[in-house]
Every structure is written in C-alpha cells, then in structure tokens.
Amino acid sequence: MNGKEILNRRLDMQLTQEQLAERVGVSTFTILRWEKGYSKPSALAARRLREVIRGRDEPEG
Fold it and tell me: Could you tell me which residue ranges the HTH cro/C1-type domain spans (predicted)?
C-alpha cells in the first residue's frame, strides 16, 4: 500500500491522522511520513494498517 492509498483509505474512513495513528499504534508523524511517501510501514505496521482498514481494531494473535 503506497502513501496515496493510505491517505485515501484514511479519508474514506473519515479518520484524522491522529485517530489512524492511535488505531495502528504509531505516531501521527509516522502516518504523515507514510502518506507523503517519505517512508513505508514496517511489516508489522503494514499488517496493523490492513487490520484497521478492514475494520478490525484488535491485532491478530
């Protein structure tokens, strides 16, 4: 998932960067960096991001 996709999904879910960051377990600055394409999510963060986007707030385990 690239930065533009992350941004579009977040907006579709009507979440702020802060709200998405809280759900994924990262900082707001990290969400900003992903959306701008300055960095990419780690494997673990990408997994959590997919879970949140699918509507699951609890990590698999």
Answer: 6-52
